[in-house]
């Protein structure tokens, strides 16, 4: 199935709050929804990923120090989120294959790639929300970890509720998987960028093969969207699906998270760094395609793969899954499946390729944001509140009276972009982002205050 959002940071949700003027900690005064104009008179957009001033609470009105903001960079990041949101809407509405059985253009451009971009941007958002280039340590880490766990709980709850509404054949609800990713992000908060890149490499190389071994003797199936009922009735099965066998297996997707965290700790305002991101991304996007071609078409792996696959599926079924992809995992009847890179196959080549595409899109969007913010405004507005808009998209997708196909795609894109543009005129965050940010911020402040009180008490006793 297809992608969904970061949904970011929380799915947009891990972000620091937008606004333009500082508000004293603990104040309930909302930050302004639109920042002062930049030179040239273009209004600055609210966004989901501002760098949080030291000691501030990510996602609260007080995390709004205007001078610290880098609007072109952050508008570019939100535009990348908006780009991923549009791609996800396309995957959920448009046909996967053309009449001749080959993958459609929309599927080729978006399937698997939109979800990967959202997951990578979730890592960027988490890095920004936990201090940007300054990694959290000590009590700061504890407070940020508590805040992240609250985000995971709320986002997971929204996802489980949507599971009752959204049929699995319409869309795979990604939010419960994101909740698990946020939990897995907690021990990663203090890792260096180098360590994060190394860990991402290990995950890309090792986890797909390990998953292949652990799932030996089973066949991939489309896992129904998780609900509270399924979680409570079969908690171990639900955990297995969320981490290993589901549509967006969190263990493999940790690679996207690690890369995003490393990027969020980097100097993304530097043209040199951005050029490096684009070049590395282009290499990662191209090399796996070449490796898959060498293994399958030059070395004869495709013939061996087909020989085994056609024992359990028809030629039409085989052609369909090769063109349109799987639902998170591949069969285990032959190791040659690991040489494929169909959308959502979760192979090492698929992970590396989609990370590369995500890096290119992100780098290009940030570079474009340095040239213009007005042209990116519709995408950036949508990308600043993807948690809300993702849920709105799923509601529209599940409405029986609304059209699907190209008409449904255009209608849903128009609705979510129009909502984002209108809402951002008077609000700093989307409605769901506001709820998540306020709850997570309150917990972070509470944990930080408790730690400071304990430290003062120990100091007096000493």
List the keywords.
462 residues; mainly alpha; 17 helices; 0% strand
Q: How does this structure look, described?
A:
- By secondary structure, the protein is mostly helical.
- It contains 17 helices and no strands.
- The chain has helices at 71-93, 105-110, 113-129, 138-165, 175-185, 193-214, 228-233, 235-245, 250-264, 271-298, 301-309, 315-324, 348-371, 377-383, 386-398, 405-423, 431-461.
- The chain is globular.
- The termini are far apart.
- Mean pLDDT is 82; it is low at 1-70.
The proportion of residues in beta strands is under 5%
Radius of gyration equals 22 Å
The number of helical runs is 17
State the assembly state of the protein chains: single chain
Class by SSE composition: mainly alpha
Low-confidence stretches: 1-70
Helix content: 55-70%
Overall pLDDT level: 82
Please give the number of β-strands.
Answer: 0
Head-to-tail CA distance between termini? 59 Å
What is the string of SSEs from the N terminus onward? HHHHHHHHHHHHHHHHH
Could you describe the largest sheet, including whether it forms a barrel? none
| Shape designation | globular
